[in-house]
Each structure stands twice: as structure tokens, then as C-alpha cells.
User: Fold this.
Amino acid sequence: RSASVASARRNLEQRVEERTEALSTALARLAASEAQFRNVASTAPVAIVIADDSGRIQFVNAATETMFGYR
Assistant:
């Protein structure tokens, strides 16, 4: 019984380690993707507006501000 508990524990620890590594990789990719989007969107010469499902504006780029006179 003790050996099976130890084996299950090692298995669980290995799975947690693998999932933690996968999550870290995914978060790094997401951060890089978000940075790339912000760079492209903020320097685009056209207006870009992003709103959430409730219609609240979450992002506007500089071209939007210029177009609507906020800059």
C-alpha cells in the first residue's frame, strides 16, 4: 500500500510539474502575442476601437483619438 501511495504521489507531482511548465509556456506566448498586437494596433494609421460584450470601450489607438479630436 505504501509503495502504491508513493508511486501515485510521484505521478501526481510529475503531472503538476508538466502542467505548470505548459502553463508558463502558454502565458509567455500570450504575453508576446499581446505585446505584438498592442504594437501593431497602437501604430496603425487607421482607427481601431475594441469594446467588450457590454459595449464598453476597452481599447482605442492613437489614430482613433486623432480622428475624433482627442489629440
Q: What stands out?
A: The chain has two helices and two strands. The chain has a mean pLDDT of 95. Strands lie at 49-51, 57-60.
